[in-house]
Amino acid sequence: MSLPPLIASLTRHKLTALLLALQVGLTCAIVCNVAFMIVDRVQQLRQPSGVAESELVMIESTDLDQDAKPLVRHQADLAALRTIVGVQSAVAVDALPFNHHDWSNGIAVVPDGPARNTATVFNGTTGELTTLGLHLLEGRDFLPDEYVPMGSAHDWNGIDQVPVTIVTRALAEKLFPGQDPLGKDIYPGDKPVRIVGVVEHLLRPQGHEGADNDYATVLPLLPDANDVTYVLRTAPQDRDRVLKQATVLLDHLHANRILRHAQSFEQLRADYFHRNHTMIGLLVAAAAGLLVVTALGIAGLASFWVQQRRRSIGIRRAVGATRRNILHYFQLENFLIVATGIALGSVLAYGLNMLLMWHYEQTRLPLPYLAIGAMALWLLGQLAVLGPALRAASVPPVVATRAA
Amino acid sequence: MLGYYCLLALYSFKCSKTITALMVLAIGLGIGASMTMITVLHVMSGDPLPGRSAHLYVPVIDPHPVSPAKPKDNVVDGAVTWIDAMYLLHTARADRQAAMAAGSLPVHPAQGSVRPFFESGHYVTADFFPMFGTPFHAGGGWSARDDENHARVVVLNADLNRKLFGNASGIGHTVRLKNTDFRVVGVLDDWHPQPTFYAQIDNAAFGSTDEFFIPLETAQELNFGIAGRMWCWGNSGDARLSDHCAWLQFWVQLNSASQASAYRGFLADYWRDQQRHGRFPRPENARLFGLMDWLGNQHVVPADLRLQLWLALGFLGVCMLNIVGLLLAKFLRRSGEISVRRALGARRRDVFAQLGVEAGMIGLVGGALGLCLAELGLWSVRQRPDGYAHLAQMDAAMLLGTFLLALIAGLCAGMVPAWRACRIPPALQLKTQ
């Protein structure tokens, strides 16, 4: 089929065709950006925390005694918790990924030097690495004699007494790019701390941007505040029972305390991301809504045009056009309109993306999103026009002989 | 004439039921989505302290060391150090001023049967209550002397008072917070400003409430923990009392614009004076934020919600384009009918009015549908586990706004097609028939 007559016919409906193209363009621009945001958010949801998420449960305990001895209390509590059937190991920690308790320090690599970046300090009793299930890439775990109290009552001065640390790979690469981090000194406080191990991932307790999210140091500092979080590792199917037993056991052991936030790590993660879940749902709904409205618009207009052109379709059929010719005519017409819309939409999509980059720290829209968005709209357009086009194709030639 | 046009419009709807339903649905969806988000943002951008907010300010002095990192989004860090807060408090250059920090403490109920529980509150100074006009159910705040004496006094909010003392007021009774007994001197009358503007603005700005208030200096003496950010640079001495840890919020009341500018001058002088003593290494940039400006600067409305609003408006835009296209096709198909009317003496503006009425009616019906969908949308927002969820209610202004938006949307959408249709040359159309 030749294009000129088709285009000539479209110019008779300039405004309508233009409006439809504009609608397709706007939909294309919004849907591409929305799809990009959805993928971005799903990736945030999937960020590996570095710990054995499905095997951990936790409970926060606050000792209310006047003359509480936290170090002794924690050891006694842990010894009792380890007796629960199904508990593989137990530690007391001050922070976990997603729990919002973020103690961050500027890290320098020379004495009194400028901080390269900040990193979260994770502290815990012996066995923290194995209990949390952190994946040690190189180096070793802490030795028993390397542990010192955190000094929470003295402005956390433990950080200036601790000899060694284990850092995440992201932090090691940031501080010592291209070098072996083992044996190097870093300065989270005033004194040097030697790196003895590198773990794959350990996500910070609250959101930081990009790679910063994985800047963490694990220190052999014993939590010595009255408020502490016990983390127990157990088989996934035992989690509920272990949590219940742990609550009862701790309460029985020492009643003058408040137990809070008894939950599995998966719950902690779900709570942390609930806003993201809502947002993803809304974004998907918005994209679907836009596509449906646009499809309905295309179908509505096409069926109008088919009704309007019944007589000319009849004439074309009478002078020899096949049903297939008529069908293709409407399909090609739709293809042209949607193509114009997509051309317009590409420009709009990048304009919108620039606005989002300016206001919402969005990154640049990758080209594949646009390509997929364009394909989706073409497909949608063809599907929407199919019904009206088939109806057009079924117009009998005899219509030509009747009055309009 | 209007009645006749309405009848004509109804007749036209009957002729093309599917298309009309489609248009009503499109406008309803667009209006519903937009009004849901506009309502949510409207209630969240409201004034938490009507009548007083115009005179309340946050002084911003920046004691941080020079850093190459650019602050994100120009969000200002309003936290001050203990040294600076005490200086501003005791020089008392504003009409009222108060320093404060958030804290979460174990509360021991007098009844032995109830277990101790955590409650969040604020450590504040005396002017906090008169400055924010907190409504007292019984008793009152404390004096500046109580601050100096580190008095063991507490003001309870209504909920905690109910939990501890039932329906009686707890005035004169003692409450044990963490490890210390406090005497109840005042009970607030359910004071829950939304957002809790005076605290650090974070995700919990909506929905969180403070249930107790104790003197800041008492909390400091007892070494009660603080909740929220504490930003330190340098590593010597007691962090909280030092001049290198910012963790307190500071608010002032200034009753006139001239006082506000005088106070800004005072802050600038302080900044330069501290520079002579080797502090405040950043170039002098003393600022004073009014309450509403402050909430704007701190992004009290989460970025996600603003994004949701833009998304809803974009959706409305696409729906409108959809309707314009459909109406245009519909009107142009009636060229014959319009031409007959024109030939019988109808002026262009009559045709325009007739088609405008038809478009407006679609807008109104769509608006009614949009209202239902917006109520549904707001209901779903209320099911979110966010602090702002319970605020998502439509008020009279929003209700009226919905219909106005729908009508305007309908009329705007009808404008182009009606204008195009009334310019059809009647002679040509009649001839082809």
Automatic annotation (TrEMBL), chain A:
Membrane-spanning intervals of the chain: 20-39, 279-306, 335-357, 369-390
A Pfam family reported for this protein in Swiss-Prot or TrEMBL: FtsX
Xref: InterPro entries: ABC3_permease_C, MacB_PCD, Macrolide_Exporter_MacB
Domain MacB-like periplasmic core residue range list: 28-227
Sequence ranges assigned to domain ABC3 transporter permease C-terminal in this UniProt record: 286-397
Keyword match Electron transport: no
Compartments, record wording: Cell membrane
Bilayer disposition of the protein: Multi-pass membrane protein
Main localization category: membrane
Keyword check for GTP-binding: no
Keywords: Cell membrane, Membrane, Transmembrane, Transmembrane helix
UniProt xrefs under PANTHER family: ABC TRANSPORTER PERMEASE YTRF, MEMBRANE COMPONENT OF TRANSPORTER-RELATED
Family: Belongs to the ABC-4 integral membrane protein family.
Protein name: ABC transporter permease
TrEMBL record, chain B:
Keywords tagged on the record: ATP-binding, Cell membrane, Membrane, Nucleotide-binding, Transmembrane, Transmembrane helix
Matches recorded under Pfam families: FtsX, MacB_PCD
GO molecular function: ATP binding
Residues annotated as transmembrane: 21-44, 309-332, 352-376, 396-419
Main location: membrane
Highest rank taxon of the organism: Bacteria
Signal peptide start and end residues: none
Subcellular location: Cell membrane
Domain called MacB-like periplasmic core: residue spans: 20-260
Occurrences of domain ABC3 transporter permease C-terminal (ranges): 312-426
Topology class, membrane: Multi-pass membrane protein
Protein name per its UniProtKB record: ABC transporter ATP-binding protein
Species whose genome carries this gene: Dyella flagellata
